[in-house]
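Sequence in, structure out. Go.
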Amino acid sequence: MPDSFEADFDPVEIFRVPLGNGPEAPQLSLTRARRAATTTARVIDHEGLPRDVHVPGEHALTLYLDRRELVTLMTLGQAPEALVMGYLRTQNLIGALTDLEAVHVDWATNSCAIVTRDPAAHDPAARMARRTVTTGCGQGTMFGDWLADLAPVSTSLTLDVATLDLALGRILALDTIYKLSGSVHGCALLRNEAEAPLLYHVEDVGRHNAVDSISGLMWLDEEIGADKIFYTTGRLTSEMVMKAAQLGVPFLVSRSGLTRMGLMLAERLGITLICRARVGRHLVYSHPQRITRSTP
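Output:
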């Protein structure tokens, strides 16, 4: 294995985040264990000449919930703690952030130790007994009966085309890992306001990882989804629609297309799907009454 593929992580830093106000509020112990986004590889180009190119990272991260092995995720490692928290949230394995005592990522062992305040209350066996392998990049997995857990997103908010175009322009202007090396998906969360401010942007080897990371960041920052726009580079499958519904985000935007089941669930769950989205053009597949066009 080339030297350029050796360890690319710094010593673990641990900090504590208050989960509430006042001196008695519980605290969450978190690591900050971000890995380098890319490494380099020597290639031979079409003219037979050697050159160095950027290659996205991909690392196995095994999650242990109260010392019980849970799952292994393949990730860039850009926001591993947020990814873990978002995974626990979207899989309904943890009901509240205050249930967590620690989320510690250790790249020396490619593992994450998740400690809850009451281990007896968080046995994942029953929920994990029912598993669905999804069409996510690298194949995602959903545990439990997702549809039974979801309520439709109900909102009176609208999204103006001018705001959508501004949001797309902000995302396209980002200095992304994809522009540097390709081979990754990205997700972003923006406020549905005139200036479309960007809250989070996460890239990972699969779009399901990126959306879980944003879910974890929203959880930590106590952000709600009702006044947000969610953007992804990947196609809008049933999994992506269900995750948007779980976050309460009414507007799901993709530069790619969708699937039949994704569309069916969007109609049922109250999600406005906007596909093939570029600045100045897009296709609205569901709940189009929420899209407005302001007069110049």
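Check: The first strand starts at residue 13 and ends at 18. The chain has two domains: 3-146, 159-292.
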